[in-house]
Write a structure and sequence with these properties.
Helices cover 88% and strands 0% of the residues. The chain starts with a helix and ends with a helix.
């Protein structure tokens, strides 16, 4: 009788373990396909080539190291927070890199349009002007134009190659240029004059954005200070007076209180960032 009970318990534990491993494996596959695959696709568009499995291993390593350090040095709850932060960090980093690349592309676009207008006046075609610009301009604009020129060389229509360029870069200014170029080519308009006008508009837009960034710089810095200060003070207080912090973190009410504080901090940080960020 006892042997049957032990066998039943062992079978139940084994079945539960297999089920948990199956659920975890399925979750990792979904995480890799839906989350990391999009991230590697964005990195590929920025000419940073990495496989989803490599990004998955990197993400899990960072999350595991953060969770282990937080658990050993402070508390298991801090380790859990660092684990969740490590799992979401790649998406935030990729988004930040893509935003910086688009900003750098837009800074180069104004002068590039002036040079293309001069090339049109010199008698070059659109493909020849893009080829010349791609060889003389540093990344990221030079890389994107080189890829567009390769598409044209392989036989892709100019309208489609320009549309692909706009979708790949993700710049609103470039989408405006692509749309205006395709319409102007169909109507037979003067591309040189049109590019001069768009270039002036892009430069004026950057001047306005620079002024807005300068005026809202203090608000952005305050959002980071306000958002990070409670956590930094809590960690410092934990090392200074662990006799007061450990009882709170050791109770369910204390953990729930910390969760509420974290959620309120994240909401407050998001609201402040939304108020100081002005989209054009």
């Amino acid at each position: 009788m006892v042997g049957l009970i032990v066998l039943a318990v062992f079978g139940a534990v084994a079945l539960l373990t297999l089920t948990l491993f199956s659920v975890a494996a399925h979750g990792l596959r979904v995480y890799e396909q839906r989350y990391l695959a999009r991230g590697t696709s964005s990195l590929g568009e920025m000419f940073i080539f990495i496989e989803p499995r490599q990004l998955l291993l990197l993400t899990l390593s960072v999350a595991a190291v953060g969770a282990l350090l937080g658990w050993l040095l402070i508390h298991w709850f801090i380790g859990l927070v660092l684990l969740l932060a490590g799992l979401t960090a790649p998406r935030a980093a990729i988004k930040h890199l893509r935003h910086k690349r688009v900003r750098a592309f837009d800074r180069q676009l104004g002068d590039t349009l002036v040079r293309m207008a001069a090339a049109f006046r010199a008698g070059l075609t659109l493909a020849q002007a893009m080829d010349t610009i791609s060889q003389e301009t540093p990344p990221p604009l030079g890389e994107e134009f080189k890829l567009a020129v390769r598409e044209l060389t392989l036989g892709v229509a100019q309208d489609q190659a320009l549309v692909n360029l706009g979708e790949r870069v993700g710049s609103d200014s470039l989408r405006l240029v692509v749309t205006a170029t395709n319409i102007a080519r169909q109507l037979g308009a003067n591309l040189a004059e049109m590019y001069d006008i768009i270039s002036d508009a892009i430069r004026e837009r950057f001047q306005i954005e620079s002024k807005v960034d300068a005026l809202t710089a203090m608000g952005r810095m305050q959002s980071w200070i306000i958002g990070l200060m409670p956590g930094a003070v809590g960690v410092a207080f934990y090392f200074m007076r662990p006799d007061l912090m450990e009882p709170m973190l050791g109770s369910a009410f204390g953990v729930a209180l910390v969760v509420v504080v974290l959620v309120m901090e994240l909401v407050g940080l998001w609201l402040i960032r939304r108020m100081v960020e002005i989209e054009f």
